[in-house]
Here is the input.
Amino acid sequence: MNRLISLLAVFAFSTLVTGCVVRQGDFTVLSDKLIDAKDFDLSGSDKVRHVEGEDKARIIVLFPTGQPSLEGAIDDALEKGCGDVLTDAVVHSYSWYIPYIYGETGWRVEGDVVKTRSD
Here is the structure.
């Protein structure tokens, strides 16, 4: 009987706690900065490998603390890598929520950051 109650409790908890990660896509080049395409050369530029950027919002009880954006995650990665272009980028969106307690939703971008501008 105790085993059945334990299984039911685990099942009930697992159905209440939900979460999801979705791979939105792979991108050869990704940026939200203005780039001069005629002088665009990645071969001679400095590259910072495996940089991860994230933009997330928390959900407290029922109320979100903001709205995360893909642009915010890209900006975070570019700032961390001190560049203006992400190459070989992978974009994920995610969310998880424990009803009426806490949750998070957001965007995660990872890739190599390249600085193409000399400013």
In short: The chain has one domain: 18-114.
